[in-house]
Amino acid sequence: MRRLLFALAAALLALRPALATDPYAFFDRDVSYVTAAPLGVKQQTSVIGINGKFPGPVVNITTNWNVVVNVLNDLNEPLLITWNGIQHRKNCWQDGVLGTNCPIPSGWNWTYELQVKDQIGSFFYFPSTGLQRAAGGFDGIVVNNRDVIAVPFGRPDGDITILIGDWYSKNHTDLRKMLDKGKDLGMPDGVLINGKGPYRYNDSLVPAGIEHETFNVHPGRTYRIRVHNVGTSTSLNFRIQGHNMLLVETEGSYTTQQNYTNLDVHVSQSYSFLVTTDQNASSDYYVVASARQVNESLWRRVTGVAVLRYSNSGGPAAGPLPDPSQDQKDRSFSMNQARSVRWNLSAGAARPNPQGSFRYSSINVTQAYLLRGAAPAWIGGRRRAALNGLSFAPPETPLRLADAYGVEGV
Ligand SMILES: *[C@@H]1O[C@H](CO)[C@@H](O)[C@H](O)[C@H]1NC(C)=O
Ligand SMILES: *[C@@H]1O[C@H](CO)[C@@H](O)[C@H](O)[C@H]1NC(C)=O
Ligand SMILES: *[C@@H]1O[C@H](CO)[C@@H](O)[C@H](O)[C@H]1NC(C)=O
Ligand SMILES: *[C@@H]1O[C@H](CO)[C@@H](O)[C@H](O)[C@H]1NC(C)=O
Ligand SMILES: *[C@@H]1O[C@H](CO)[C@@H](O)[C@H](O)[C@H]1NC(C)=O
Ligand SMILES: *[C@@H]1O[C@H](CO)[C@@H](O)[C@H](O)[C@H]1NC(C)=O
Ligand SMILES: *[C@@H]1O[C@H](CO)[C@@H](O)[C@H](O)[C@H]1NC(C)=O
Ligand SMILES: *[C@@H]1O[C@H](CO)[C@@H](O)[C@H](O)[C@H]1NC(C)=O
Ligand SMILES: *[C@@H]1O[C@H](CO)[C@@H](O)[C@H](O)[C@H]1NC(C)=O
């Protein structure tokens, strides 16, 4: 018996090299200021572009790939990119979060090495410090299933990444100063869709000369649409005029499939929908991202509007925008909607990883903490996000260095 096990183990070990050679994908990301005027020439600002583009290029990879990203910081200040939601199997020096990772000094480069072990789905990357994300530096991450793992729906005819987010015409250094003086950022100047301002659906609300996003599709097809709220502070209601959106995945987990006519996407959330182009194309259709949980009549001028254009479209979109949920009197609607999303446990996807999370239920609880997110707090005259009134300030000696070299008192 023992011998048999030995032989089996040896055979498995012999197989290992084949299993261990997960493919490598290499990316270069040069992060620099680009001049852009997403809300028209009067609102020109320093935007953070990637490889000269705003938004940057999508990172399109497959489960288990080793991803090597050489990031060059061409900004005039430190830069830390976080690969949101991506697990880091190699070590925790790669996740792009202050505390475990140091920012890349201006003019330097750093190579992140990640492995998207057992992961699938829709994520995005962004600069994680100094409010730089308010100026750009982001784009989507698509993690495709390996061919041997079934996707719980038919192969879509196209894959479209849509980044929605609030936008301020002040640049991030000016926004930072406002917070440091204890001021609120206030109402944003617009909501961008893929880095572009609103389609001019109403001449008095949207000034002329703004470039908008157009999604070109063919009739009778099904597209996978990945929607990410890359903004700073605004919850957005996302909808496509005349179309159902079948929710299939969120942040790396397949969901039970459910149709929505609109869905709230809170800051940093990612959802993917299947959208079937089953309408008569008598005109183009509006794609809308509008602010939620604010005075919507006051905030109407910041609504993000793009266009869905069928190849047989009868003409431009016109008329009023489709309505969001009519729930002004029900403040819990949005939270309940988010809570109603369910994991499809029979679909193949990432599973709790053997390094820890599957053991959580066997850990005895000895202490409990209540984290109260009553932001913002005024700390030393500055406006800061806080938990229990405490905010985070990076220590002079980075935590991981203190840990690695046994530096006390940090
Ligand atoms: C932001 O704008 C201010 C002027 O309002 C300017 O002094 C500053 O250099 C700008 N910052 C960047 C990063 O462009
Ligand atoms: C992403 O990669 C997959 C698999 O290699 C490919 O089928 C797909 O067309 C790519 N998608 C995009 C948007 O480039
Ligand atoms: C910086 O980029 C160069 C050229 O691409 C590369 O050879 C080097 O390894 C990179 N350095 C770091 C620390 O990533
Ligand atoms: C869940 O995934 C399974 C397996 O792929 C699929 O057959 C089923 O339709 C999905 N269920 C729902 C409710 O989406
Ligand atoms: C444009 O918006 C204004 C202000 O909300 C509204 O009064 C007007 O009716 C709208 N125009 C059209 C054509 O919908
Ligand atoms: C979603 O809506 C489409 C029509 O747009 C319909 O064909 C489909 O059956 C619906 N799916 C679910 C799960 O409700
Ligand atoms: C197309 O659909 C719209 C909305 O359902 C309807 O108002 C319109 O009459 C239809 N047009 C044609 C040519 O069928
Ligand atoms: C929203 O703002 C408008 C314009 O200032 C005001 O008339 C209205 O009362 C406000 N609505 C609410 C619910 O506060
Ligand atoms: C949890 O507590 C039980 C009962 O005291 C004990 O038997 C068990 O070993 C503890 N588990 C762990 C992981 O410490």
TrEMBL record:
What SUPFAM superfamilies does the annotation carry?
Cupredoxins
Q: Name one GO molecular function term.
A: copper ion binding
User: Ranges for the Plastocyanin-like domain?
Assistant: 31-146, 159-313
The record ties this protein, via InterPro entries, to: Cu-oxidase-like_N (IPR011707), Cu-oxidase_2nd (IPR001117), Cu-oxidase_fam (IPR045087), Cupredoxin (IPR008972)
Assigned keywords, A-Z:
Signal
* Annotated region (Disordered), positions in chain: 313-334
**UniProt keyword Nucleotidyltransferase present:** no
Signal peptide span: 1-20
For this chain, the family text in UniProt reads: Belongs to the multicopper oxidase family.
* Name of the protein: Monocopper oxidase-like protein SKU5
The organism is: Panicum miliaceum (Proso millet)
